[in-house]
Amino acid sequence: MKMKNNKLEVFKSHLIRLIKEEIEGGEDEQKGADKVLYDTILSPSDINAAVDALADVKNYGMYAQNLRDPKVILRVFGPSVPATKGRVAKETWDQSNESEKLSKIIDIKSRAPQEWVKVEEKLESKFDEWSIENDNTSFPEFLVTLEAKDLPMEFFGKYASTYFATKTPDNLKKYSGVMTKDNQFIVSGDKIIFPVKSNPFQTKDYLEKVLKTIMGNAKIPYTIAQQESDDQPKVVSNVQGIVDKINFVKTFDTPKLASKFKKLIPKDFAEKITVDMGKVMVSDITDPQKKNLMATALKFIADNKPKKEPTEDAIKESLSKLVKKILAEEKFPDLTGDGKVTRADILKGRGVVLEKEGVPHYTKDGKEWKGKMHKMPDNSLMSGNPHDKDGSGPNGKSEKLYHKEDLNKKSKNKPMEESFKNQLKKAIMEVLQEKNLNNKK
Known about the structure:
Elements: H1 2-31, E1 38-44, H2 47-54, H3 70-77, H4 82-95, H5 98-111, H6 113-122, H7 124-134, H8 139-144, H9 153-156, H10 169-174, E2 186-188, E3 191-194, H11 204-218, E4 222-228, E5 246-251, H12 255-262, E6 273-276, E7 279-285, H13 287-303, H14 312-329, H15 343-349, E8 361-362, E9 368-369, E10 373-375, E11 381-383, H16 404-412, H17 420-440
């Protein structure tokens, strides 16, 4: 419960700091004016006692964690992802110097005495050989000579639990930081000055809160004041016509696109343009000019986005859907004229001649044929029997025969020589080709 309360306090502190930053900087930023910077001045009753209090991490309470060195935390506790700790531990050991390795050995021996005994047992024979050869009986110095791959598993532990310390509140306190003289503060007479530029807590209000905690824990009377800092930002006056210059930089996927975009940049910027492979830079321009260039770049990228070619599977799927749609929406025509759509209509659509009892047959030139007839494998009716004997054609050759109505249709329309399936496929391909041509336009 205590840990949860501490985290809540830290969250509240950060939230207050962010709100105060907005309040302090909002109006000035809207007006375009630069804020005046103020240093924090601490006037303690005892200057030496105050400096000592600032050097004692215990006085900082929960604020000490804000001053931790991330590199130190990583070196002591390892990475936050358990799966990577073992690899990082071995890499760290191999990259450490002799002094750092000896420190780590002392650390492991004190934190994990049981694992340390196992390490000694597993390396006993190698250590004895090394001791005789080097006339040295120091086990830690022997370990320093070994690479990570030669050390037993117990030296590192599962997920480097032996090599790296566990992140507990007490362990973290050991590596919490403090504000130091000539870094975060300066001693001037009987006052301690905290320059705004080196404030580790970002805002003066947050710093004041930390100082109150430190001085309160050390039981030192004090007063806090603010004075205008000597290190003020340089003023840039837009009224006098002085404008900040900035750069526009955009990287495209290919040098060709970068070169193409360059042609869209106004000619006035010709001397300011630099193109390096896919990167385009326009230097020394104003903020409005940069915004215009960025808008042009975004439109250019959208217009030149590569179109993905449809895959073979995608085309097949589209054709399948189109065929199903056509078959679902369009009824097969009544080709026989009997008022029904039957198998006979489908056969006739495929070009099959259907026989009718007592119906005369005609040659292609319209003459009625009363001689012998025979059917072909495709069910079409031919003159003569057998084939090419006693037929209606020259020298008795067989010719295709027709019913009267079919002959009339043949004279007006193109015969349905293709199957319905082929006709449908052809129509679909024509539609797709037309669509493709329209897209290219």
